[in-house]
Design goal:
This protein is of the alpha+beta class. The chain folds into two domains: 93 residues, Arc Repressor Mutant, subunit A (Orthogonal Bundle), CATH 1.10.10; 245 residues, Penicillin V Acylase, Chain A (4-Layer Sandwich). It has twelve helices and 14 strands. The strands form two sheets. Strands 1-4-5-6-7-8-9-10 form an eight-stranded mixed β-sheet. Strands 11-2-3-12-13-14 form a six-stranded antiparallel β-sheet, covered by helices on one side. Strand 9 and strand 10 form a beta hairpin. Helix 8 runs antiparallel to helix 9. It is globular, with a radius of gyration of 18 Å. The two termini are 33 Å apart.
């Protein structure tokens, strides 16, 4: 087991200042993230027919929608570019890559779970998330402790110049995001900017409304939890949504739509088999334990059934379109306002604890 620990960067101020601080602190990670995305597009050119210059042109089309609705998060992107001393257009490509690639990157990406007080041994609300992405970006992962002037403080994971979105805030709201593949995508607000806005929510209804913002380009599945034990999963596309409530004290989601109406707009369902296997496996495991702890959820995060496309993902071989790995595993104790994170696969790396201080 490796004991390496994800770096944490603390940022303060207005949104432009926070972005600049983050870009400066993560200059190397941001540049590596850009280089990795360059390489991805080069490897996938025969399929996507998209150059880096073409990706920049496409990304620019999305930014006016983001500027109109969320100028503060566009300021964060501009600040990241300035702090990292990279092109703003490059940062836009990173943060709109799913849109500009037309969702052709069928990385199955991520497993999310949540259990409330009814399902835990110590009456805490716990959330678990495995972030599956390109193996090359494992070196770019970090934790952000943010204190915005005008929004709740938050603790979140990010990597390679992306806006943070998977984490929790001082209002007791946590979010995990799982990629899904709708057919009704459009030019609009990029998904990462939509999910960044959720970290500013002060109530669950605010968080859900953020996921459904008008003129969104598409959507994720947003697994949302509140410190009270209320748990929701919101499946989103550009035009549709479905809301699930954690009636039994738990929720699980991976990378396919579950709601029948959302399945009507799912792209290439026949290619999304491993996500369904992971979903069923995670739900079975979470049901088997009546009272969960940090350790029991970590055990699920390390599960290798259907290896290498398992919950603990090791699918590092293959072409650019489907190569992936669990680059970090996160476990949030929302009651304690803490996040535990492994740097890389949780089966090979120890968890370290990060706390939200307000």
């Amino acid at each position: 087991m490796s004991n390496r620990k994800l770096p944490m960067y603390e940022i303060h101020g207005n949104h432009e200042e926070m972005g600049e601080q983050l870009g400066e602190a993560c200059r190397e990670q941001t540049r590596i993230g850009i280089a990795n995305t360059h390489q991805l597009l080069q490897e996938a050119y025969d399929f996507l027919h998209l150059t880096w210059e073409g990706a920049q042109i496409q990304a620019r089309k999305y930014m006016p929608f983001a500027e109109e609705r969320y100028p503060q998060y566009v300021d964060e992107l501009k600040g990241i570019a300035r702090g990292a001393n990279v092109d703003y257009d490059d940062i836009c490509v990173l943060n709109a890559i799913e849109a500009v690639s037309q969702d052709a990157l069928h990385l199955t990406k991520c497993t999310s779970m949540a259990v409330n007080q009814e399902r835990t041994a110590n009456d805490h609300v716990l959330i678990a998330h495995n972030e599956d992405w390109l193996p090359e970006d494992e070196d770019d992962v970090y934790v952000v402790l943010a204190h915005p002037d005008d929004e709740p403080a938050f603790l979140a994971m990010s990597y390679g110049g992306l806006l943070p979105n998977v984490g929790f805030n001082s209002e007791g709201i946590a979010q995990c995001c799982d990629s899904v593949y709708p057919t009704d995508t459009r030019i609009g607000i990029p998904r990462l900017i939509v999910s960044r806005a959720v970290l500013a929510a002060k109530s669950l209804s605010d968080a859900i409304r953020c996921t459904l913002v008008s003129h969104r380009a598409a959507g994720y599945n947003h697994l949302l939890a509140h410190e009270s034990g209320e748990i929701y999963s919101v499946e989103v596309s550009a035009h549709r949504f479905a809301v699930f409530y954690g009636t039994d004290g738990y929720l699980v989601h991976t990378n396919h739509y579950v709601d029948p109406k959302m399945l009507e707009v799912e792209r290439d369902s026949d290619e999304l088999i491993s996500t369904r296997v992971r979903y069923n496996r995670a739900e079975r495991l979470i049901r088997q334990t009546p009272k969960h702890t940090i350790k029991t959820l970590q055990a699920i995060q390390m599960d290798h059934i259907n290896y290498p496309n398992s919950i603990c993902n090791h699918a590092v071989e293959g072409n650019a379109m489907d190569r992936e790995n669990t680059i970090t595993a996160l476990l949030i104790d929302l009651t304690e306002r803490q996040m535990l994170a492994s740097w890389g696969n949780p089966c090979m790396n120890t968890y370290h604890t990060y706390s939200l201080t307000t």
